[in-house]
Amino acid sequence: MKDSQPKTIYLKDYQVPDYLVDTTKLHFELEPKATLVKSRLSIRRNPQAGAGLPPLVLDGVELELLSVAVDGVPLSAEDYQVLPEGLSIPVSKAEFLLEIQNRINPEDNTSLEGLYLSNDMYCTQCEAEGFRKITFYPDRPDVMSKFTTTIVAPMDHPVLLSNGNEIERGRSEDGRQFVTWEDPFAKPAYLFALVAGDLEQVEDSFTTASGRNVKLQIFTEAKNIGKCDHAMRSLKNAMRWDEEVYGREYDLDIFMVVAVDHFNMGAMENKGLNIFNSACVLASPETATDTAFQRIESIVGHEYFHNWSGNRVTCRDWFQLSLKEGFTVFRDAEFSADLNSRAVKRIEDVSLLRTTQFAEDAGPMAHPIRPDSYIEISNFYTLTIYEKGAEVVRMIHTLLGAEGFRKGSDLYFERHDGCAVTCEDFVKAMEDANQVDLQQFRRWYSQAGTPVLDVTDSFDQSEGIYRLTIRQSCLPSPGQTEKLPFHIPVRVGLLGNDGTDLALNEQGDTEIVLQLKETEQVFEFSGLAEKPLPSLLRGFSAPVKVRYNYSNEQLLFLMRKDADTFNRWDASQRLALNALCDLQAAFRKGEALKVQPSLINAYREVLQDTDLDPALVAEILQLPSEQFVAEESVAVDAEAIIVAREFVRKAIAVELFAEFRKRYLELNLSKPYSPNAIDIAQRRLKNTCLSYMCVTETEEALELAKSQFEVAANMTDSAAALAVIINYGEDRLAEDSISQFYQRWESDTQVVELWLSQQSCSPKRGTLENIIALMQHPAFEMKNPNKVRSVIGGFANRNFKQFHKSDGSGFEFVADQVLALDKLNPQIAARLVIPITRWKKYSGDLAEKMRGALQRVSDSGELSKDLFEVVSKSLL
Ligand code: PHE
Ligand code: ZN
Predict the structure, then answer these.
(1) At what angle do helices 565-589 and 552-561 cross, to 10 degrees?
(2) What pairs with residue 494 in β-bridges?
(3) Which ranges of 746-875 does DSSP label H, i.e. alpha helix?
């Protein structure tokens, strides 16, 4: 541990900045180990900050300070104070020009924050607090400034980019070249970007609704130039969608996207110059899976949408992060839903939320979507801020309706354009535009934890009245023992005996949104002839857990009949969860395991239902993941979960083999690849069938997998075949296929990442021994987060079986890797440690072993702020 404990930052301590920066002029002379940065800041006392002229405090980390001058007069070292993470300069005038020169070392910057080198390309990452690793600056989002940036570089880095418009270029006397960019929009430093490299580009254009012509460019290394089409198409779709759905146009003459191989996150919305993790932008049919195509579409959309929800209107402070992220995830989810299958998109998002965000919300790092405190803000780029934040925005949308929501967003953008604002401002705009009261709803921003709804019902035959009683509760979370009731929109329908929706009111609506506000509330429905079956929380109208004592028969009924597609799927999941729960109990008691024929029959019916969207069939057939079963357990018994799940999978595979084969053969069409929703759905189901068939490990099934592996003309089919061969084929076949695949694709970074994760995620081949060997492979690179995520992250997060080995070796391994990574890239280390922070969720020995590994990390000496925060909070 550091000598001084890292300090906690509190929302309640927020104060407006003492000084503003009207203009920021930057000048870079790029050198791998010694880049010179000169800045000229026009500084002004903030009129809102009160009287007097306190010292100007600037943030700065890992900078070599060369000189400071005020209004052209150089300061000597005694004139200012160097702080551990910054600079304090005395001030004598309300307005002045500050000039600073400093040096930085991009080549040795492995944290990938600030200015760094990826392969041979310079690039920056400034969110949240990376700009302070470039130069001394008030690095906070409520200081907004107009940036002008000059980049000087040797000729082997011909492409020099920054935000805004290019205003000048030329040669310097020493043979280097320079380019100057000017961004007309004031922005916080976290949206600054610079790129320099030997890059190629694809170019296109977009005409906005008001007729402005925008140049669109995607930059990559030459070898990837053929992998930009899908991102470009997605970008144009996103631009059109934001005009149509939100009335928002793009505001500069040029929009640039750059792909980089070394990146901590998915992508970054820098003004006019988005920087993307290569994996989130590059795709071609031969090299990218359907999942990758869809991910790219949504992330390109996400970053583009930030231009309004994030850049034009930004965050006052980092506690407000969900203001831009929750809203923007909601926007990108709707974009994807509009362009593809809405139901399937919703199912995918809710699966992720329930598996991963619910676990976070019940764990040691649980925080509200607007946290009250943090030690390291990078640790708060979480599923809670992003995905739960999006659910909260979605609930507002549900409460106000599409039109009301649009009125609210129009008012929000109009009121706050060019400003740095708070979540409160967002909610207020929604309220004011609709004249509604969201006072109680605001608790979603301040209270952590997943609410639970306990639902009971009764039917009064003589009166024809059906009553639903809903009780809400929420467990304590760190720092919050008592929770006040939430305002929860609960969308419901009632099914009659024949499975059709009953009328719920005089207007004849068959679906309504109940407004749950009390701890317990009774909702009455009258005029009913028979006791209905409730379909609760349709479309997952709130991020909560619903408990209603459905019998398996009722779940089967909902799975067949519910008018709400999401709830059909949800019923199938509950049914499977019940089965997995029973099997775990039987396993613990040493009883014989068996699966109810009714479950198998239900799957058979779904599998044979050719009217149903094949993607939905695939989703229903997909058993809840081990991670989700674990999240639903009170005390995780890893072995029982694995045994139970494997048993059900095998039972389904054996019983329905013929049906799987039939659908597989019907769907195994050879047609040119297109990543459209219909084709994706067909491939999805086809590969689900293949996977189930191979569970039986019969020769017939593996022959199909082998031939698919050999002839596949797209990466979805090829990777799916490889996955089943790895998991169910004989060792020889598996090894040959693994090396054959590598030989074919070794020069393609994205495919190699997939190849690595297929092995690390495999319950059969992803043994600790093989993982360690994989880390010695030339394709692995500890300094590259994608590779780390593929191998170590895949093992810890998605290889439930090998990670949970009873000897605790998986936990110790993760602890070792986390410690090694912390020296290179603290953000990645702090993320990778998460799988071993959930020890309280486990039973017995495994909990002890996991805690032990975590304790060892804690005891091992100097940790980064990032890792310290996660580890120390998880040991409490
Ligand atoms: N703001 C980025 C996004 O959500 C995420 C990001 C955060 C990227 C921090 C890099 C660093 O689009
Ligand atoms: Zn974002």
Answers:
(1) 150
(2) 534
(3) 749-760, 768-774, 785-788, 800-803, 809-824, 826-832, 844-859, 865-875
Distance CA 857, CA 868 (A): 9
Contact 550, 534 (CB under 8 A): no
Please report the pLDDT score of residue 234 as a whole number.
98
SS3 content of the chain, % helix, strand, coil (to 5): 45, 20, 35
Q: Confirm whether 781 is a catalytic residue.
A: no
Cα 276 to ligand 1 centre (Å): 10
Residue with tokens 């929800």: 309
* pLDDT of res. 141: 99
Q: What is the spatial distance between Cα 731 and Cα 727, in angstroms, rounded to a whole number?
A: 9
Q: What is the pLDDT of residue 539?
A: 98
Residue ranges, the chain, pLDDT below 70: 1-4
Residue that the structure tokens 């013929």 belong to = 658
Give the C-alpha separation, 377 to 319, whole Å.
8
CA of 303 to the centre of ligand 1 (A): 9
- Bridge partners for 102 per DSSP: 37, 65
Any idea which residue has 């930057």 for tokens?
26
pLDDT at 47: 97
DSSP alpha helix (H) spans, 145-258: 229-246
Does 265 sit in the ligand 1 pocket, CB within 6 Å? yes
Rg (C-alpha) for the chain, rounded Å, is 28
Q: Is the CB of 351 under 6 A from ligand 1?
A: no
852 and 814 in contact (C-beta within 8 Å)?
no
pLDDT at site 670: 84
Q: Which of 786, 714, 717 is nearest to 752 (CA)?
A: 786
CB 636 within 8 A of CB 628: no
Residue 847: count other Cβ atoms within 10 Å of its Cβ. Answer: 16
Q: Which amino acid is at 455?
A: V
pTM for this one? Answer: 0.98
Residue 500 neighbours by CB distance under 10 Å: 11
Question: pLDDT tens-digit profile of 742-770?
Answer: 999 999 999 999 999 999 999 999 999 99
pLDDT at 4: 67
pLDDT of residue 2: 44
Q: With H, G, I as helix, E, B as strand and everything else as coil, classify residue 446.
A: helix
The preferred substitution site among 265, 296, 827 for testing ligand 1, maximizing ligand atoms within 8 Å of CB, is 265
In 3D, which of 206, 265, 257, 194 has the Cα closest to residue 227?
Answer: 257
Query: How far is residue 224's CA from residue 745's CA, in Å, rounded to a whole number?
Result: 13
pLDDT digits (tens, 9 = 90+) for 806-836: 999 999 999 999 999 999 999 999 999 999 9
Residue type, 261: D
- Please pick, among 29, 99, 127, 303, the residue that the annotation labels catalytic: 303
pLDDT score at 1: 41
CA distance 639 to 644: 9
Ligand 1 atom 9 nearest Cα: 127
